[in-house]
Each structure stands twice: as C-alpha cells, then as structure tokens.
Design goal:
The protein is an alpha/beta fold and 351 residues long. The chain has two domains: 1-67; 94-347, Alpha-Beta Complex (Spore Coat Polysaccharide Biosynthesis Protein SpsA, Chain A), CATH 3.90.550. Helix content is 36%, strand content 15%. The chain has helices at 2-46, 50-66, 105-111, 142-158, 178-192, 248-253, 267-277, 309-314, 316-319, and strands at residues 120-121, 131-138, 162-170, 197-201, 205-207, 221-222, 226-227, 243-247, 291-294, 331-337, 342-347. Strands 1, 2, 3, 4, 6, 8, 10 and 11 form an eight-stranded mixed β-sheet that branches. It has a three-stranded mixed β-sheet with strand order 5-9-7. The structure holds beta-D-glucopyranose (BGC).
Amino acid sequence: MRDAAGNFSVLDRTCSLVVLLCFLHISVTLIYYIRNSDSRQTFVQNHQTPQSHRKLTEQRVTTEETRPPSVSNDTVTERKLETCPDNPPKLVGPLRVEFSDPVTLDLVREQNPALQPGGRFKPEECIAQQKVAMIIPFRNRDEHLKFWLYYMHPILQRQQLDYGVYVIVQDGDELFNRAKLLNIGYVETLKEYDYQCFVFSDVDLIPMDDRNIYKCFSQPRHLSVSMDKFGFRLPYTQFFGGVSSLSKEQYLKINGFPNNYWGWGGEDDDIFNRISFKGMSVSRPDGVIGRCRMIRHNRDDKNDPNPQRFDQIAHTRQTMGQDGISSLSYKVLKVEKNQLFTKITVDVGKP
Ligand code: BGC
C-alpha cells in the first residue's frame, strides 16, 4: 500500500515537472519570438532614408489598397502621381543671398544628388506642371555660374519643376550677342526635350524669394522686377531685362528675339516691344517676391554699349517679322554635359 502511494507521489512529481518544463519552454519561445519581431522592425526603421520610406509607403498603397482585384499578386502597379500644386509645399519664402564666400562645383554637386546628367530634374512626388528649359547666355563668367548653380538648383527643385539648365556659350571674342544666344538656347533645348516653357536668365542674377516661380504664365513674364542694383524697383515700366519667361506659343508669336543687337543693351527693350506689338502684356510678381540680387562686376570685354540700340528699338515693328527665330543661323561647336548643366558652345557669327 505504501509502495503504491510512493509510486503515485513519484508519478505526481514527474508530471508536475513535465508540466513546468512545458510551461517554461512555451514562455522562452514566446519571449524569443516577441524580441525577435521587435528587432526586425527596428532594423527596418533605422535603414530607411526619406526616399526609401516613401517607396515603401507607396508600394504598400499600391499593393494593398489600389490594386484592381483582377491583377495578380505578383504585379505591382505604379502609383498614379498627381499634378504638382500651384503652391509647392517646400517653398520657404525670403532667402539669404550673398556672394562673399566663393562656392565650388563639388559642393553644388554634393548638395544636389537628385540631379540627372545635364542638370536635369523632375520631382518624384508629383507630375511637374511645366517642362522648363533654363537658358543662360554666357561667356567667361565661371565664378558667377557657380553661384547661379549653387542658389538656383535647390530653388528650382523646391518649385517642383521638370527642368534642365543650359549654358549657351558664345565662342570667340566678337561682340557679345545676348538675344541671339537666347534664340539658340530655344532651338537647341527643344532638340533635347519637349520643353513648353523657356526661362531666359542672366548668369549674375539670383532671386531672393523662392515664391518667384521660374515657370511660364498666361502672358510673357518678367521675373527680375526688383533688383538690388536699381534700389529694388523697376528702373522704367517697360524694363524686361535680367530674367524672363515665355511659353513656346508666346515666343513663336513674336518670332523669337532679335539677332542683330551686338554689344550691351537694347535687346530686352526690343523683346518688350515685340510682346506689346503682338497684343500681349507682361506679367510680373509683386515687388517683394520679385526681389533679386545681382553679382557686382565690371563690364565684360567685348560687351560695350551698342550705340545703334536706340535706333534699333525705334524700328522693332518693322524689323520683327524678318529678324528673329525665322532668320536664325549659327553653328554648334560643342555640347558637353555634367551633373549640374549642359554647356552648348556656339559660333554666332559676326555683326
Ligand atoms: C538698356 C537695356 C537695359 C536697361 C537697364 C537700357 O538703357 O537698353 O538693355 O536692360 O537699360 O540697364
């Protein structure tokens, strides 16, 4: 009897031990599982850049919410992007613009990793409202170009434009011909991409507010309306110099720009005349948003004031039909692309 009772108590203890061991095993497995799934989540969080985060979220949206029922599980459809808004959300407003410390192209490259070869960009988060070619007439102003690229690339990206930067270099040392270089920029950029809008910018002008959007409007736009050089106001009502934008239609309506203004001055006044003779008006940002700084410099060699400009401006109505994009002739000597811009060197001929 005692033996049976003894056996029963051994059996009892063994069973309790087995139950305890099972319980222990289940607890350890549970703890291990929970800790492991935590650390997997932490790993994902720590290794997400803002971009990869966006991609993950987008993928989740497409695979879980927007995939049509008929699409198989393996197919990931692309998320449909919306058009970018009129007021881009990343704009910051007034900007500090100064030219005392030189900048390097390396720095500009580092700060703009999203650029594609040739100084091209398009926003990832939405479809840009416009495809814009930034056209800069140029000769021997490398220091100014660095500042332009340094300030403008981040601004243009915040403005959510689909854009490219084109530096049109006049070869040789003949008198400078700004308007002809702009015409060449129009033709050459269209060979590369279906641009709808053209911003013509001097290399030494930087906007002081990123709400001054470098795009096209229903009328030709004058963007550099409030320059430090002129005490932050228009020097005269018809002033159209510095930075302007025209859509393809607006540009073609005025037969482009004049080709025969050699040396400094007058070509922008001729463009203003063309615009008003074709019944268009000039649109402008307000004087605060349109503030901009000019890099101080001496007049370039071979860019003396054009003494014929007053006479030329007085005859725009008669000349604009023949002289313009319809009569443009030039030779492209070289096209070079780097990460920050496309450089097109051209022979514009002689006066
Ligand atoms: C010239 C323009 C120039 C303006 C402001 C005018 O006399 O004809 O080309 O933009 O002055 O400097």
